[in-house]
Amino acid sequence: MRAFVPTGMFGNGDFGLYARAVFAGRSTEFEHKGEAKLGDQATTRFDFHVPVSSGMRIRSLDLAATVGYHGSFYAETGTLDALRLEVEADALPEKLDLRQVSDTMEYKRTRIGGGDFLLPSSSDTLMVNLRGDASRNMVRFSDCHEFSGESTLKFGDDDAADAAAAPSAASAAGAKRELTLPRNAEIVLRLVDEIDTNNAAVGDPVRAALASDVKEKGQVLFHKGVEVSGRIVRLEHYENFTVLGLMFHEAESETAHAYLNLAWDRAMGEDVLASPRWGASSPARPHEGLVPLRPGHLHVSRGVVMFWRN
Prior knowledge:
The protein is mainly β and 310 residues long. The chain folds into two domains: 17-140; 180-309, Type IV secretion system, VirB10/TraB/TrbI (Lipocalin), CATH 2.40.128.260. It is built from two helices and 22 strands. The longest helix has 15 residues, at 158-172. The model is unreliable at 169-173 (pLDDT under 50).
């Protein structure tokens, strides 16, 4: 996961792992706590405890430990659908420099295709260190879709006819060319959408556009304006500046597609801090661009120009 999210806090149990460990685990202990109100909703509350042997893995900086955890879940009266699952880590080792790790997941029924499914709708993860500094990660699960497919099994001469027709069918569908960009080519990107660093989060998608044509031996591979997709991989707020970390990984036009392997050079824009007297919590990782922003600039304007090399 750190290859995709180099900095910041994240978890990988919110969507299903916690529910599986609590409800399907063989060593989970339950205690019925009776009726409880969850807002205006009438529910039944159960407390539970998961031992270290089936516990959660927590990593802080370069240190890691497995700990047990406890919590509660609330089931809707009548249907017994889970509405909320709360977990909190037990006996955190001092070496982790943490005094609290907790996670709360909300559930609701979601319509997907022709059925209703009970799925997480949100999660709120909290980590507090021994000095009282807190990190929070809030996730919303939405836009779930059903994906389906069909297959046909044939025998005999039809297979050869289908194989012969495959290339022409692909051409008719307008398959895109897969391109490899020239080594050391300068890639100039211009930010398409404004970024609100006060509300943005690591993992959010980012769009940019090529500010100039990308050529190889005089031939244009991608024209100016082609969209390039990426993500926020770092967001750190300091008293005198903010560090925005970006990675861009794909360029796609109507006829061609390319995976990018970019190295960062610099950025230019009214929001970008020109002074070299700034620093991030850790050095830039491969393919990560660190954009230093001036203090007080929570909105990164569209049009910021970024220079990379392939």
